[in-house]
Amino acid sequence: MRVLWSREELVCQEVVELITDYLEGALPRAQRRRLDAHLSDCEHCSEYLEQMRATIRLTGRLAPEDLTPAMREEFSELYRRWRAQEV
Amino acid sequence: MITHAQLLHAIPGLCLNVLAVLSTVPWPRRRSAAGGEDLELLARLRAGEEDAFLALVARHNAMLLRLAGSLVSSRAVAEEVVQDTWLGALRGLDGFAGRSSLKTWLMRILVNRARSTGVIEHRTVAVGDVVPAVDRSRFDATGHWMSPPQHWIEDSDERLFAESLADRLQAALRELPSRQRDVVMLRDVDGLSGHEVCEALGISEGNQRVLLHRARSRLRQALENEMGGM
């Protein structure tokens, strides 16, 4: 295993492993700069970053599960019992 | 390949402090719009509208079930804890001052209920598998792309609903190891902040990011497999 961490430029294979920390704002400033430098120069990794953003966006657009009629009934019952001070 | 542990060792102490401070800043995604709707429903609930309660349940129940499901072992127990949480919320309605979001408040009730009934199981956080974000074979010996990501972003939003992309994404979510699925769904489907997820699941910020990274990387690959080469 080659340890690639150094003051040198990042390579693509390292970039894809740092992309979440980058998006989370969790990278130390120097490393963030190194990653920005790589991105400005590498169309494939820029594409990869955009795909990660698209993945997050698409996951967030998945339809939320609806309450089933049975669950609706159950929670309606819970609400009425609470209103009646029974629970 | 470089591991997160190696990275952390390589970062000087000062940067670790910066890391700690940064990671406590909540991510304000979706908070404002979603929060406004919650407050409106809460006001209607306080005025005695049952429908407002059911609307709040519809908005947050799936998230609470997911959270409960990640804390206890059986679906039945999880459902019980969630019911108990809603009852606790109704009883504590007057005590909710709106300083935190409704979502955060509900999560706290749920975690407390689960703890006090002793049903929380202490699971070890398995961040063990070291599957790379992108298969090694796609890079050359120097770590540069040999088989670069294929284009697919264009039209993906349309295809999410028009075609089977949503099903494929759901399937990819189901195929994730459970811990990764919990984290990515709480973050990207339910819109919780990293900080909230850590607090609720009792995991460190670093672990949360590793699990999130693996999950998102796999989902991206699933989307590329489905959409790539158009």
Produce the secondary structure layout.
The complex is a heterodimer of chains A (87) and B (230).
Chain A: H1 12-23, H2 29-39, H3 43-60, H4 69-83
Helix pairs in contact in A: 1-3
Chain B: H1 4-10, H2 13-23, H3 31-46, H4 50-71, H5 75-91, H6 102-116, H7 156-162, H8 165-175, H9 178-189, H10 194-201, H11 205-227
| Number of contiguous helices of chain B | 11
What is the mean predicted local confidence, pLDDT of chain B? 80
What is the largest interface, and how many residues per chain? A-B, 55 and 65 residues
The radius of gyration over CA of chain A amounts to 24 Å
User: Which geometry of chain A do the CA atoms define?
Assistant: elongated
In N-to-C order, the SSE pattern of chain B is HHHHHHHHHHH
Main sheet: strands, sense, barrel of chain A? none
**Spans of at least 5 consecutive residues with low confidence of chain B:** 1-32
Which features would summarize this protein structure in a list?
heterodimer; A: 87 residues; mainly alpha; 4 helices; elongated; B: 230 residues; 65% helix; disordered N terminus
